Amino acid sequence: MAQHQFTSVDYVVFSLTVLTSVAIGLFCAHSRRRQSTSTMSEEYLMAGRSMRSIPIALSLIASFLSAVSILGLPAEIFYFGVQYWMVVTATFVVIPVVVAVYLPVFYDLRLTSVYEYLQRRFSVSVRLIASAIYILQTVLYSAVVIYAPAIALDAVSNFPTWASILTGGAVATLYTTVGGMKAVIWTDVFQAVVMLGGLLTIIIMGTVHMGGLQVVFQKACDGSRLNFFNWSPNPTERLTFWALSIGGTFTSLQRWGVGQTSVQRMLTSHSLRSAKRSLWLMLPLTLLSITLCSLAGIVIYAVYADCDPLEACFIEKRDQILPYFVVDVLRHAYGIPGLFLSAVVCGTLRSGLVSRFSSAYMLSKPTHY
Q1: At what angle do helices 53-64 and 272-303 cross, to 10 degrees?
Q2: Which residues, at least 6 apart from 348, have a Cβ–Cβ distance to it below 8 Å?
Q3: Per-residue pLDDT tens for 298-318?
Q4: 224 vs 85: CA distance, rounded Å
Q5: Which residue has the higher pLDDT, 3 or 265?
């Protein structure tokens, strides 16, 4: 894949994103020092149970928008069409269930970890086994999420992959371990704005480059990329409405209903009503995020409808299509490659290490009831 050098403006945009994330963590750590020792653990793991609904909702959507999503969803739309967008139907089923069934139970018990519930309901052994499985899954998942922005960085500059992995991992570890859960949530808010803003910028500039939305959608239509509905009941087909809606429902139920990353954020709310409100806000935010990723894929397809960069050997993998679009079409717009890279790296920095640390904490210190 052809490499392009960052300009000084790109480096400034990227550096400001990283430094802001670290600054939020340091600020939260400083404010926590003024509290008594008895409340330090509660503040570190649960943000003092004082968070409002809007920051929690933005933090939840940030936990959904990983670097894998930012790189993978536009590539999915580019090569296979917008059918994946139908997965949003699952959110409209899952959120009401979580609000009515799961959240009230967890909140009334004032849990720190969802694995506490397993101990109360079953035994310490069940809790330890589930926690160990979760930590193993998180280690494997984090490896993928950290590697994704390294691909993007390698696509737009000569910055080594190993260096970007170490940088992203070090920054994320620093602000999460120092700042605690409150730092995670507020950096999630900042990074969610950067990620959504980066996608929106790419869509707008790509649309202007093509001459308007009408041209973009016409090319997408001509290329059979506006294939929203596939009602086939055949389970062997790649994507169908039934696979996305039913399969997406069970996947989303695990993520929002019992996933430690989501539940811990919701339980930091100052009240059950506020926690429920943050989940209801997830409906439009999820719709917005998936729609922006899909639109980015459609715009990129419109640009390269007559020349697939993969077939032309300009890129080596499908998930490089978005970074290639940025450095190929938008490279003359100062700061845009830096903004794009910031959006992708934010998908790594918001991986929610504190949520993982709380599971390790509960794994090593089981409670007795």
Answers
A1: 40
A2: 66, 67, 145, 146, 148, 149, 168, 172
A3: 999 999 988 888 888 888 788
A4: 15
A5: 265
Longest dimension (CA), the chain: 65
Residues 338-360 pLDDT 10s: 887 777 777 666 554 544 544 44
| CA contacts within 13 A on the Cβ side of 44 | 19
This prediction has a pTM of: 0.87
Specify the amino acid at residue 6: F
Alpha carbon distance 289, 115 (integer Å):
29
Nearest to 226 by CA among 237, 213, 211, 209: 213
The CA distance from 28 to 184, in Å, is 10
Query: Which phi and psi angles does 51 have, rounded to 5°?
Result: -80, 155
Backbone φ and ψ of 49, nearest 5°:
50, 50
- Would you say 242 and 336 are in contact if contact means Cβ atoms under 8 Å apart? no
Quote the CA–CA distance of 267 and 109 in Å, as a whole number. Answer: 10
Single out the residue of 206, 222, 228, 237 nearest to residue 325, CA to CA: 206
Distance between CA atoms of residues 58 and 45, nearest Å: 18
CA distance linking residue 218 with residue 298, whole number of Å? 10
List all residues 6 or more positions away from 264 whose beta carbon is below 8 Å from its beta carbon. 45, 46, 112, 113, 114, 181, 354, 355, 358
- SS3 sequence of the chain: CCCCCCCHHHHHHHHHHHHHHHHHHHHHHHHHCCCCHHHHHHHHHHHHHCECHHHHHHHHHHHHCCHHHHHHHHHHHHHHCHHHHHHHHHHHHHHHHHHHHHHHHHHHCCCCCHHHHHHHHCCHHHHHHHHHHHHHHHHHHHHHHHHHHHHHHHHHCCCCHHHHHHHHHHHHHHHHHHHHHHHHHHHHHHHHHHHHHHHHHHHHHHHHHHCCHHHHHHHHHHCCCCCCCCCCCCCCCCCCHHHHHHHHHHHHHHHHHHCHHHHHHHCCECCHHHHHHHHHHHHHHHHHHHHHHHHHHHHHHHHCCCCCCCCCCCCCCHHHHHHHHHHHHCCCCCCHHHHHHHHHHHHHHCCCHHHHHHHHHHHHCCCCC
Residues 6+ apart with CB under 8 A from 101: 257
